[in-house]
Amino acid sequence: MLDADFFRRWMTVTAASVDREAERLTALDSEIGDADHGSNLQRGFRAVKDALEKEPPATPGAVLTQAGRLLVSTVGGASGPLYGTLLRRTGKTLGEAAEVDRQQFAEALRAGVDAVMKLGGAAAGDKTMIDALLPAVDALGESFAAARDAAREGAVATTPMLARKGRASYLGERSIGHQDPGATSSALLISALLDAGPGDAEAGGGE
Amino acid sequence: MSEVSDEKLVGIVLVSHSAAVAASVAELAQGLSGAGASVPVAPAGGTGSGELGTSAELIAAAAASVDRGAGVAVLTDLGSAVLTVKALLAEGDELPGNTRLVDAPFLEGAVAAVVTASTGADLAAVAAAASEAYGYRKV
Which residues form the DhaL domain (chain A) (predicted)? Predict the structure, then answer.
């Protein structure tokens, strides 16, 4: 089962991972965006990590709802409302439960991804974070490792795509040949689930 | 940027990536609309630290400051400004209850919104006037 501590560790591991990869995210964003994705997410997830350490919320839903709210208010770019909505809607869907299993989490995350698609108007294949998140959600019922692999493959698969949403879409065909920064950071977020533990068997729900 | 009026007027929030753009459009819209000086208008531009970007906190503070009980119309420039307002409306409770994101061109819509609000029109009429600004052809 996954408790509030697990979700707090997920955010902490994500913050560390974004710290480590910030330069790469910004470099990807300088190719087809406005070169602030790494620093924006770094600011946001540091704020999330600090707030959750200072006053740890009691339930999985509360951890993600607060994390989402902080991302909306601290990131300063489009990734703030997008990641903020993802976590906030996921957290709200988890409700008040003290523990959830991996299946419940997978269903809640799907609701979060749906909310992001509604907010940004992006669909699969538009060269956005959705291209990493959708396959990850599909694989999450199987295992965290499968979700990580699916997210990474989804991010890599954005390289030949033509951007249809966001600033990169103004570039038209020049957006082809670059991996999408948002899909790349989404893969970091999903990969962090594995390092936050517990193992897949303990997380339950799929075996 | 606003004066308190006895009549309940719709408040206007102008959200831009740039603090200078938001403040200047607010000044221009009020200046061009004559009676518009009585309409509560608040700019919410840039990040809290003065860089280009969008601040949910500045937006929430601006909306609270112009809420006179008749609703708040929010106009935005693009990208994260639009998404941040939408996210606040969809998921949060940080904005006054009767707040609406208006689909309108930023500058022309702001002028139309302030002029319409100054007549005492309701939020739906203010939003409609701002949206109609998409149709102002110049050539």
Answer: 5-195
